Amino acid sequence: MTSAKEEILSRIRDAQKLADASASVEHSHEYRTESSLGRDELREILVDRLVDYKADVIQCSADELPGKIVEVLHDRECDDVRYAPGLEKSLFDGFSGTAAPDESSVDPRTLGDADAVVTSSVVSAAQTGTIVLQSDVLEDGPAVCGRRSLSLVPDRHLCIVPMDTVVYGVPEMFGKIDPYKPATLISGPSATSDIELVRVEGVHGPRDLIVFVVD
Fold first, then answer.
1. Mind telling me which InterPro entries this protein's record contains (predicted)?
2. What is the pLDDT, as a whole number, of residue 62?
């Protein structure tokens, strides 16, 4: 340990003694873990938050989903599309370009060459407009979210949010997440600001986020 570090820690310990600070402090965790909001109210709140974050939101039924996905891909002139390997290939019926499942063995840097990627999600919090992706959430289930890089490297992300997976608050949302697997939390397209508050999009992920709220 360096002398500077020793000095800093020593001062902290002395300050704690003077303040009579205990080694540990008990905190009560009384989080709201359930909501009485109905399905329609949850949908309205989620869509409102996503639109406010500048995401494009498309509401549709499961039967309409393939057509809506293809429509968006054509409207944005996408030719090369990668999708989470657990998604059905039939989602891209009618697509004139190339749609292929992503493979974890492929260099993730090549994902930047794709015009768009398509994934599903595991849970979303309507209150904050936050969508959660996790890889291989079900031990024997499909990888509907794909690897983390699939939703981070490309510039355009089409994300499916089934209404059955939408909850109201963040505590509820975290209760649905597998704590032993990495999670990607998305609240709108990637955006950040520099010290002069100049907004820059696409630095930490896709700048174009299209969310399909499926009911």
1. FTHF_cligase-like_sf, LUD_dom, NagB/RpiA_transferase-like
2. 97
104-to-78, 83, 84, 143, 149 alpha-carbon distances in Å:
22, 12, 10, 11, 9
Exposure string over 112-121, b if 16+ CB within 10 A, otherwise e: eebbbbbbbb
pLDDT, position 32? 75
Q: Where are the domains of the chain?
A: 33-214
Helices (DSSP H) in the chain: which residue ranges? 3-19, 39-52, 65-75, 170-175
Please give the C-alpha separations between residue 100 and each of 80, 82, 113, 134, 208, in angstroms, as whole numbers: 8, 5, 13, 20, 20
Question: Does the predicted model carry a pTM greater than 0.70?
Answer: yes
Q: For residue 191, what are the β-bridge partners?
A: 201
d(CA 8, CA 24): 20
CA 111, distance to chain mean position in Å, is 17
Mean pLDDT by 10 residues, the chain (215 residues): 83 80 68 83 97 96 98 97 95 96 91 96 96 72 85 94 96 91 89 77 84 97
In 10 A of CB 204, how many CB atoms? 11
At 3, the amino acid letter reads S
| 3 phi and psi angles, rounded to 5 deg | -65, -35
Question: For the chain, give me the number of helices (H) and strands (E)?
Answer: 4, 12
